[in-house]
Amino acid sequence: TTFQDGGEEVEDGAVYNVTLKKVQIQQAANKGARWLGGEGDQLPPEHTVRQYETSKIRAIKAGTLEKLVENLLTAFGDADFSYISIFLATYRAFASPRAVLELLLDRFGNLETSNQGEVANLNSLESEMVLRAEIASVLRAWLDQCSEDFREPPDYMCLLKLLDYLKNNMPNSDMESRVQNLLKQFQNQEVEAVDGFCSTSSSDLVDGEELEISNPEEFSSFQDHVVAEQLTYMDVMLFRRVVPYHCLGSIWSQRDKKENKNLAPTVRATITQFNAVTKCVISTILGTRELKIQQRAKIIEKWIHIAHECRILKNFSSLRAIISALQSNSIYRLKTTWMCVSKDILLMYEELSEIFSDHDNYLTSRELLMKEATSKFANLDSSEKENQKKSQKRLQLQKNKGVMQGTVPYLGTFLTDLIMLDTALQDYVEGGLINFEKRRREFEVIAQIKLLQSSCNSYCLIPDQKFIQWFRRQRHLTEEESYKLSREAEAAADTNILSPKSQKSMVKRISTLFLGTDVFTPPKEQPLKSSPAGGSSGESTDSASVSSCEFNHSETEDVCVTPVSSPEDPLKKISGYSLSSCSPDSSMSTPSSGVSSLPSFLLASTDDKSSVGSDKGYDSDKGSISSDKALPVYNRQSEGSCIIRVSMDGLQDSIYKSILITNQDRIPDVTQRALLKHNLEPDAVEDYELVQVISEDKELVFPRDANVFYGMNSHVNFDFILRKRA
């Protein structure tokens, strides 16, 4: 089979990509070979005759909503077999379920009011039965893949409209019964708390129970593999409930608006669970002041073992949460405690941390995740022989149970990819047509989420109520509290218990582990800012390089993980998910190394600006899709565009938004877009000035009408601040 680019076809309200597919349909013996009695598949090429068939594949790349809905009925005839799945997974970014259903049923499904011309245009559908079969196929796929679209309590207007259509056009059909059952299911179901497994609110506790700081003895009584299995059980239950379209950048990025406080609840629940695990790790290590150094070190070792068990179970969410907590400033700074952690455990910890290295846009974790998604069991590899033996032994025990394992991902990676895609690609192209090429790119990410959700059905885990109740009861420390306890623990430690020689050796080992250098410089201790009302942390510190998340200070479940500061990069943030308001769209700060948070398929090589190859890019000057342009990226100007990060000076200076700019944009344009992104009034453009952060003590202030693209310093991070004019 060979493919050839057939160019574009333009219709009224739609643009199609055309591909010619040449397929061999027959191979027969030629006349001389038949006279000799030979068979085609047993003869050399010179004695055979091949017959080929060329077919045309039409894939819509942009169109009006009406054309996109119409294409649902004609996509199979155009050989665009994935179109229905792509449309159903992404249409919520540009249309509502009601709008799509009305177009599908009223315009194309109501044959009594459709004129003959409209019916004939639907790819030569010749009969009413064929059209009904096409509509039934679309509706069946909709119910199979996105039944949650019809959950609209209390009226369920879309579901009732669909039921009415089926009664009139497909009476007594299986689909009619299915819709009736779905309606009853929605009506009978009480509102489910999607975060029921991870909430630490008092309403989820048994009467008489209160939140408490972990008892070290009680925590130590749980076996490592039991803790890992229970964390995996909770993660699986929540991840399977994630509605994929909730992750779309255009939807998730709107969650900070007041009217959207209940937006994407399934994603928020997963993030809340991640934060609960991170906080639990910190509170078990720091919550008891009376612990001795060795006891605290044992708890750290236990969490590293639990992280390793999560790796065996292919639970990358809790694995990353544990690693994030251990890399937080309040835990990382416990130098004396880390010196008491055994060498083998430190090496294990180093290997687990390497999984989430930000090198090459987290290539290691991305490749590993996709490799694990299709394997029955974890693929473990350790450079340390002792750790390798332990890993293989535990893995063999899992295999002996005969039950395959799924894979639980770190959802922040996908949220980051989708946010960056939403920022880099335009929603509409020339003529006001919906850019469906953008939706195809988004579906590549959504499909990975669905694949991993499907794999989670392989888990066979039983909840341990004793552990789950213990986990829910944990009182989480604020960032201020954990930092204060960390300083107290370190001050109480007798640093003289180690000889100078052993101390020097241990310090070097830890410095190699955390900083990749032979000189250990402890992070500079900064006084914490006051915590906002509600008991949550004031300074949320998530990672631009890891999860590109932001913190919503109005939320009370904010995570309080303070990242490590290294001598080479004092502002570099390590680890973390954001909390209920986690967004890959924004972050606390940018690593000075300039590592982009863009997904791998958005990154262009520094040596070859066209390394994205044949991927479609958007020509912002012409307002159309260009086939040869690389997509804009953060921290590099390419093809007349780039992505910058803009934060608000003052109360929201820790939150940034990704903004796409071109070489035509001036200060008022960029300022207006930034204000809109931050949910502020765009009319106040003249009241703000745009500033690029050059270093800790240097800024570049732009004149009122400057061209941002040409005026910015392209040799430093593309980080900007929007500040009220004096």
UniProtKB/TrEMBL annotation:
N-terminal Ras-GEF domain segment(s): 56-187
Keywords: Guanine-nucleotide releasing factor
Record's compositionally biased regions (Basic and acidic residues): 608-622
CDD domains per record: RasGEF (cd00155), REM (cd06224)
PANTHER family: GUANINE NUCLEOTIDE EXCHANGE FACTOR, RAL GUANINE NUCLEOTIDE DISSOCIATION STIMULATOR-LIKE 1
Region of interest: Disordered: 521-548, 608-628
Pfam families: RA, RasGEF, RasGEF_N
GO biological process, one term: Ras protein signal transduction
GO function term, MF aspect, one: guanyl-nucleotide exchange factor activity
Gene Ontology CC, one term: plasma membrane
Location of the Ras-GEF domain: 223-492
Amino acid composition bias (Polar residues), ranges on this chain: 538-548
Gene (UniProt): Rgl1
Organism name: Cardinalis cardinalis (Northern cardinal)
InterPro entries: RA_dom, Ras-like_GEF, Ras-like_Gua-exchang_fac_N, Ras_G-nucl-exch_fac_CS, Ras_GEF_dom_sf, RASGEF_cat_dom, RASGEF_cat_dom_sf, Ubiquitin-like_domsf
SUPFAM superfamilies: Ras GEF, Ubiquitin-like
PROSITE patterns: RA, RASGEF, RASGEF_CAT, RASGEF_NTER
Name recorded for this polypeptide: RGL1 protein
Residue ranges of every copy of the Ras-associating domain listed in the record: 640-726
